[in-house]
Amino acid sequence: MVQGLSGLASASSLFLVASGLTVIFGVTRIVNFAHGSLYMMGAYLSWTLVTALPRGHLGFWGGVLVAALIVGVIGVLIEVLLLRRIYKAPELFQLLGTFGVVLIVQDVALMIWGPQDLLGPRAPGLRGAVEILGVRFPLYELFLIAVGPVVLGLLWLLFHRTRWGTTVRAATADREMVGALGVNQRMLFTTVFFLGSVLAGLGGALQLPRESVNLQMDLAIIAEAFVVVVIGGLGSLPGAFLAALLLGQLQAFGILIFPKITLVLAFLVMAVVLVVRPHGLLGRPPASAHAAHVVEPPYPPATPLARNLGFAALALAVLVPPFMGEFALIVFTEIAIMVLFAASLHFIMGPGGMASFGHAAYFGLGAYGAALLAKHFAAPMELGLFAAPLMAGFAGVVFGWFCVRLSGVYAAMLTLAFAQIAWSTAFQWVEITGGDNGILGVWPSAWAQPKLVYYYMALVLCVGVTLLLRRAIFAPFGYALRAGRDSPLRAEAIGMDGFRIRWVAFILAAIAAGIAGGLFAYAKGSVFPTYMAIPRSVDALLMVLLGGVQTVSGPIVGALAYTWIHEQLMRSFDLWRLFLGSVIVALVLFFPQGLVGAAQRLTERRK
Amino acid sequence: MLEVEGLHAHYGRAHILQGVTLAARQGEVVALLGRNGAGKSTTMKSIMGLVRPSQGQVRFEGRDLAGREPFEIARAGIGYVPEERRIFTELTVMENLDVGRRPPRPGQEAWTEERVFALFPSLGAMRARPGGRMSGGEQQMLTIGRTLMGNPRLILLDEPSEGLAPVIIERMADAILALKRDGLTVLLSEQNLHFARLVSDRACVLEKGMIRWEGTLEALMADEAVKQQYLVA
Q1: Between chains, do A181 and B95 touch, taking CB under 8 Å as contact?
Q2: In chain B, which residues have their Cβ closer than 8 Å to the Cβ of A184?
Q3: Which range has the worst mean pLDDT, A349-358, A405-414, B57-66, B150-159?
Q4: Transmembrane segments in this chain: where (chain B) (predicted)?
Q5: pLDDT for the residue numbered A459
């Protein structure tokens, strides 16, 4: 009973955040990764205001409301400066661009409020508790339970009883037509973003009396909000409400029954819902989500220049290391691994045209596959390196079977969900995986202990597998994959099994990522859940996008550039998130075709 | 009132409009005729800004609107009724009309829901019905009514008779003639020559992205060669 009530209270705050996210998506078709950051800002700002203002009702409630409004203004700034320029970009760029904002906000919050958890005052007038069926239950929780339905009701009135709301609903269905009727979409989008941001800010501010304010709030809530929005159906408010209730209860009771897998449970429900109802419980297939399907031009064979550059790079990678120090060798090994990791993601994104926001799952599962064997069976490295692709490939078989059925935002969300399942398993199943402490002592066999030997082994494996993937792109299988990407109906009409082809591609990519993960585990000597966390998936995406999705050599260039930049940043800046976030935002805004794509356009123009 | 000059438009690499030039005077009903794929809809969309013209001018009441955004063009006084109707299916009749509402020019008699219902009486009987649960003819009336709520002075009608029963087509023709009597200028694209003849003053015949023939409907009906070359499928 009490569990159920506290589940309802969590559902309310979750609904506030998710409702903003879903309203924003409905109209702008943007999945705003930074929505969790707005929530976090709401919590921090209300902490500042409430502690600064005089105590009492006005100080507290005024502080909460003002904080929500300030968050609304911040949201408007984000919309005007960034999102407005990328409404027509592919979904992955939008996810990535808003993730850049997440990083920036994290460091800004760190600068302003410091790293320690902040505790807010309790709400005046709601400090006590009431007795329900013999158990004391905090009044504030009851208040929160009421907030959800009240906000849902107010939003319903706003959307059904005002002309602005009617216009928003019309734009959710067909925004181009709304524009042709004289509605300024820019103003509409900005006001919608304001509303969504205020809701996120309010959700965060209302958490103040409940839990401490900290820098991890943003990613924690955004993952749950994504799940709620996707289960409910992107763009559907009642759906979000329903899903928030479902998830709140699931977590409240999950703690009683399966304390170890509460996180997994949420994502599992989402995966099941998406497979049964691909557009969520109350969602509809998007009416005219994006402009006409773009057919990518065929990949040109490598030019002599590119070929020579490739050989030169490889020659450097082979000849220089014997003269390098240990640290440089470690960096080189890591770069070789990242090249393979990026190439494996590129394989499904570029030729496959599928969006993956959770590729780290396969990298991490490869690493864990090796490490678990080493820890529990004292297996040697050779066996571990064999187990890595096996484990990742197996996950690719299972997860891929679900993921390749969906496309666009839904596919990105589902891949993210599976990665979160893998991550939370590693994080919560402490007996087996060591939880947050990871698994230590994953060392290579004696012969491969010297850093130079290990480097050469990694180089051979990574370059070899990368070349195999490249070979597959130019083989009949690759042609079929690209045919399915560019015109799925025509490809099916000439007898190609699009589902099977994409599934195989997904599995191959998972296997390749698993090899990279296994090599990474032995290179580091340890594995941690962070290998599978969202930032690692974003790393892979950045490498691919930095190089250019629709180029074959892009992921290689991207991995080289990204790993190097990342290394430099981490070493020389405390605020590397701020810097990396800015780089991501700049990349999304100015180099949507990546470095190699931009270089190709330059050389084409010169011709 | 409307002068389109040398309008070019592309879809990707396909060169759809190759220099369309046409004009409509105040209070005139001009029919844009031509086969499927001749460029009728693209001409309409380019005037409206939904397809960005790659070259050429769209002058409306003396202002050049080419390259402007659709909402600016709508606010300048051009209404657009798309071929696919694009009713907001979740919204009721009243709500659909509400989305189209724009303030009138000073001195212009404003369109209201009641005035739309006077023009299309059957809509008045289903004010609370969602757009998705209406017949094709009713949707066509609603989409015209929705555009009229914006108080346009020129209205672009893309194939208003398409897929409608003959009785409804007659009623649609009456409505267009009523709008003409009110002083509205109409540019309509049509495949149905019979319908075009009922309402239009003049015809422009489009083929492969260019205007090939221009004249009165009577002259067109008499000219078997032009009909054969550009209109008969």
Answers
A1: no
A2: 71
A3: A405-414
A4: none
A5: 93
Rounded CA separation A190/A83 (Å): 10
Q: Which residues pair with B3 in a beta bridge?
A: B23, B59
pTM beyond 0.80: the answer is yes
Dist. CA B24–CA B4, nearest whole Å: 9
pLDDT of A290 reads 38
Classify A527 as helix, strand or coil. strand
Residue A113 structural domain: 2-221
> What is the H or E stretch that residue B171 is in?
helix B166-181
CATH superfamily of B27-52+69-203+211-231: P-loop containing nucleotide triphosphate hydrolases (3.40.50.300)
* Amino acid in the structure at residue A584: I
pLDDT, tens digit, 9 for 90 and up, residues A366-380 = 999 999 999 888 889
Residues A170, B91: C-beta atoms closer than 8 Å: yes
Listed by number, the residues of chain B in 80-99 with a beta carbon closer than 8 Å to a beta carbon of chain A are: 80, 82, 86, 88-91, 95-96, 98-99
Per-residue pLDDT band at A357 (split at 50, 70, 90) = confident
pLDDT of residue A604: 67
Count of structural domains, chain A: 2
* CB nearest B88 (choices: A163, A174, A185): A174
Q: Which residues in A494-511 are b (16+ Cβ under 10 Å) and which e?
A: eebebeebbbbbbbbbbb
Q: Which of A87, A177, A293 to mutate to test the interface with B (most CBs of B within 10 A)?
A: A177
Residues in chain B with CB shorter than 8 Å from the CB of A166 are 91, 95, 98-99
Give B7-64 pLDDT, tens digit per residue: 999 987 889 999 999 999 999 999 999 988 889 999 999 999 999 999 999 999 999 9
Q: Can you say whether residue B49 is alpha, beta or left, with left for phi > 0 and alpha for psi between -120 and 50 degrees?
A: left
Q: Which two tokens stand for residue B67?
A: 């390259």
Contact call for B71 and A185, based on CB within 8 A: yes
Last residue of a domain, one of A498, A532, A566: A532
B194 touches chain A (CB under 8 A): no
Give the residue from chain A lying closest to B89, CA to CA. A173
Nearest residue on chain A to B48, alpha-carbon basis: A180
Asked if B70 and A176 come within 8 Å (Cβ–Cβ), the reply is yes
Contact check, Cβ <8 Å, A182/B71: yes
Q: Average the pLDDT over A272-290 and give the result.
A: 71
Low-confidence residues of chain B, pLDDT below 70?
233
Nearest to A537 by CA among A424, A453, A416, A427: A416
CB atoms within 10 A of CB A49: 20
